[in-house]
Amino acid sequence: MSLSGHRSHVGSSEPSYPDDSAAPSDRTRPAEPDGPDGPVAGAAPARGAGSHSGSAPAIALRDVVKRFGSFTAVDGLDLDVPSGTVFGLLGPNGAGKSTTMKMLTAQSRADSGEITVLGHAVPRASKRARARMGVVPQHDNLDEELTVRENLEVFTHLYRVPRAHRAEAVDRGLRLAHLEDRPHLRADKLSGGMRRRLLIVRGLVHRPHLVLLDEPTVGLDPQVRQELWGLITDLRAEGVTVLMSTHYIEEAERLADVVALMAGGRVVSEGVPADLIARHAGSTVEEFPLEAGARADEIEERVAAAGLATRRTGATLSVLRADRIPESLRESLGRGNARAGNLEDVFVTLTGERVE
């Protein structure tokens, strides 16, 4: 399911840009790694060793604004990403997710506000921040003429992985991408899923503390998407902080420890997915087909009078927190098709936009 702009009873598109993992002037000379105990040669921190216990967040944005002419893509954004978590930015196209990602790597500069990444102010110290992060762009920019191994080797040089550790870093990338048996295959001969896995592990060769994934599974079939979910889960197990933008509801629910729902360049709500669902949608939602000639507005008014939220999708009316439908209303409504509440219901309730 993905997010689009339709109305709910309760309650512009984002400019495109060329995707890359760093600005051209920085790609050839990344900042020096922290040393043998830093992100290049050192082991990843244990999961939960970050800001859960009160230390500084991996990413912090304060009142960040980004405009493109008269269009405000990011509008006073405040966000903290705890260390050691998989953090999901969930929202429709145009919500400001990709623009936020670009600002974190200084490929786009905020008009106002403050951004800190791994303790470094961005864009002022963006080289130091990027040396400790891995960036996976939304669009495929693999070098078609290089082999799988060569694509990884190039990035061990760009990220200044020490010479003695480069072969090990490449081998680890091959294992993570499940491409150990295809190291000499050119990138243009890989399947779509293989290319995407290679694109992700290319940003991991220096064992970054933080990984930015911009719509990591967009356009992929469900089977390949689930394979990539496994890769993200592996990163979580290593204690790596992951910031992932997505408009796939199931992806956010399954992978993210914390989700921030974005609309109109702002975060409208944030929390653990299960908590957000319990707070805004309830455990049970019932879907009622709207028969021809049915007065949907009147039905919605009766449901609202009972203190319950609704959302309409085509010829279907969904009632949130259906376990609280009073008997007096139940007599006129009957029983709908029951299902579990999800983040789609939450997003609709809070923003008036619908998830497809």
Sum up the structure in keywords:
single chain; 356 residues; alpha/beta; Rossmann fold; Alpha-Beta Plaits; six-stranded mixed β-sheet; 24% strand; nucleotide-binding
**The CATH top-level class label of the largest domain:** Alpha Beta
Label the structural class.
alpha/beta
Number of strands: 16
Biggest sheet layout: 6 strands, mixed
The proportion of residues forming helix, as a percent range, comes to: 25-40%
The number of distinct helices, counting runs of at least 4 residues, comes to 12
Averaged pLDDT: 83
Brief overview:
The chain has 356 residues and is an alpha/beta fold.
Polypeptide structure, described:
This protein has two domains: 12-270, Rossmann fold (3-Layer(aba) Sandwich); 282-340, Alpha-Beta Plaits (2-Layer Sandwich), CATH 3.30.70. The chain is elongated and about 75 Å long. It has helices at 24-27, 97-104, 126-131, 148-158, 163-176, 192-202, 222-237, 249-255, 273-280, 296-305, 327-333, 343-351, and strands spanning 3-4, 59-68, 71-81, 86-90, 112-117, 120-122, 133-136, 210-214, 241-246, 258-263, 266-271, 284-289, 310-313, 316-319, 337-340, 354-355. The termini are close together. It has 356 residues and is α/β, with parallel strands linked by helices. The strands form four sheets. It has a six-stranded mixed sheet with strand order 7-8-9-4-10-11, with helices on both faces.
